[in-house]
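Request: When convenient, would you put together a sequence paired with its structure tokens?
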Amino acid sequence: MKRQPWLLVILCFAGPILGCASNANLRVVRLADGRLRVEGPMAGPFKTSEELAANACTLMTSQGGASAGPSGSEYCAVHYYSAIEDAYFLSYLSDVKSRLDTRQEKTCEMPRALFDPTRPDAVIIGGDHTHPHNRQFSPGDLRGQWRPLRIFDKKSGRIFQRELFVFFRERDDTCRAYRYNYVTRLVSALREMKWIPIGQAYGDHGSIEMFEGMGWLP
């Protein structure tokens, strides 16, 4: 009997744990308030956001379909900080969608809550997602916001600015990591383990003005 595509979708999202059970890295539930909550950590500790992003890029783009081009799909996660270890962590993943994909647009609904019982002080710094067919932030990525945009961590005394990472794996297996800062609206690329500003978002439509001599590729 041929399995219908819609039946596969129902099977993958049935039950209290959302996502397909065939991937052990998918650990997400829908809370009563409607938010998605992921477990953590899948990876870490990392001492810098650069180390976090480089490792998250490799891990997340290695998931099934994450680098499959127009026929691929997105994965979402969150990254967070714990003052207990003075380190960053990557959560487990979600592949839950709030709308259907097209060949031009791939989506996943960003988790907004975290379950890490060993780090009760965890502060979510931002969201992470893969792009299977495009290395650039989409207009929707840059229009979105995550309130509050700044987070004061009482334990460490640090102020964090919320951010969004996007990861893309090239055909030659190079993993590209990019960061969007919701406060400054700077777009940066991870190059040689350093965040390099390459552009500035502006307006309400998710537009980017690239800095002179800068682009999505080095």
